[in-house]
Amino acid sequence: MQIPVEIAFHNIDSLPWAEDEIRARVAKLEKLYDRLTTCRVRVDQRARNSNGTIPPVVRIEMSIPGHKDLVVSHEPEHLQHKFQAPDLHNAINEAFRIAEDRLVEFKKQRQGRTKEPHHDAENQFLGQVAEKNPDEDFAFLMTKEGGLLYFHRNSVLAGDFDSLERGDVVAYVEQMGDTGPVAAKVRVKAKA
């Protein structure tokens, strides 16, 4: 992490074992997602009762570049429903369990956003420049089937449109234009 973990105790004494446990769990979060910039953990004893059965709230804020902070915080009732006698140890474990789940889900979403490499190799065809008027911004190429396909100067990716000559071998991708099929992503393969 770029910024060391921040641990704060509010309305409860700082306990060395709790700090050690929090640091160990933050290290696990960092292993799950190594792009965490910082993690802030706040242990807050918001309420007390006579028999001491209200557990503290553990709030975890995880900072990730380019994304808003992931925050985990739950009310004491959550622990009271889950455990018979919840304590600080239960509160730490439950908060970090939820944080780990959220971080794993976030990581999956991020990986899902990455696109597969897209290649036109399977859609590419070879043709030859058939006609080109030097005064115009378009030309025609002959397909292997013998048909003519229009292409515009802006469709030429590899090579210079002005240097194209009749008979130059080009690779292209066929797409639908406004008036029918056209050649796109034209690349010069061999000069005539």
List keywords for this structure.
192 residues; alpha+beta; Double Stranded RNA Binding Domain; OB fold (Dihydrolipoamide Acetyltransferase, E2P); 2 domains; 6-stranded mixed sheet; 3 helices; 34% strand
CATH architecture of the largest domain: 2-Layer Sandwich
Shape descriptor reads: rod-shaped
Q: What is the strand content?
A: 25-35%
| Portion in helices | 25-40%
Structural class: alpha+beta
Q: Going by CATH, what is the homologous superfamily of the largest domain?
A: Ribosome hibernation promotion factor-like
What name does the CATH topology of the largest domain carry?
Answer: Double Stranded RNA Binding Domain
What's the oligomerization state? single chain
Mean pLDDT: 86
Profile the largest sheet: 6 strands, mixed
How many β-strand stretches?
10
Low-confidence stretches: none
The structural domain count equals: 2
Number of helices: 3
Would you give an account of this structure?
The chain is of the alpha+beta class and 192 residues long. It folds into 2 domains: 6-113, Ribosome hibernation promotion factor-like (Double Stranded RNA Binding Domain, 2-Layer Sandwich), CATH 3.30.160.100; 121-190, OB fold (Dihydrolipoamide Acetyltransferase, E2P), CATH 2.40.50. It is built from 3 helices and 10 strands. The chain has helices at 16-32, 76-82, 88-113; strands spanning 6-10, 38-44, 57-64, 67-72, 124-132, 138-142, 148-152, 156-158, 169-176, 181-190. Strands 7-6-5-9-10-8 form a 6-stranded mixed β-sheet, with no helix packed on it. Strands 1-2-3-4 form a 4-stranded mixed β-sheet, covered by helices on one side. Strand 6 (138-142) and strand 7 (148-152) form a beta hairpin. Helix 1 (16-32) runs parallel beside helix 3 (88-113). The protein is rod-shaped. The model has no long low-confidence stretch (mean pLDDT 86).
